[in-house]
């Protein structure tokens, strides 16, 4: 009996592995056969709901909450300002460090940027880098631009999210 010395822990571990494999197999079957029949029924995150609401009520090119931060009619914790852009802390941070970089020029989203915005777009990215350095994000950070309803854009004024201070996961969404 070659297996008699293996004991209960081996049998228990083997049983757990077999159960895990069976569960993964069943999950694949459910994903392939049941979920497609649900059609358009899906659970939506708060982010998705906000993006859909923002897209349906967006008045492209009109002032946004970010315009009010630029003109100081609403407060924000400003980290950087120059003649082209503003960086400030996100009011709903998704990481220990989370700030936004926005152009002072109203560009509704990255898909609205034009060739004449090339210098400004580069300036926004370099500003993101400089503020990240000032925030001591030496181990790394994530840079995100949400665009349009399927990109979960909730404010139609171009903005760059910079997030760091913890290990980021992949894929993000």
TrEMBL record:
SUPFAM superfamilies tied to this protein: HIT-like
Record GO terms (molecular function): catalytic activity
Position of sequence motif Histidine triad motif: 157-161
InterPro entries, alphabetized: Histidine_triad_CS (IPR019808), Histidine_triad_HIT (IPR001310), HIT-like (IPR011146), HIT-like_sf (IPR036265)
Segments forming domain HIT: 65-173
Catalytic residue positions: 159
CDD domains, per database record: PKCI_related (cd01276)
Annotated source species: Capitella teleta
Name of this protein: HIT domain-containing protein
UniProt cross-references to PANTHER family, sorted A to Z: HISTIDINE TRIAD HIT PROTEIN
Pfam family, one: HIT
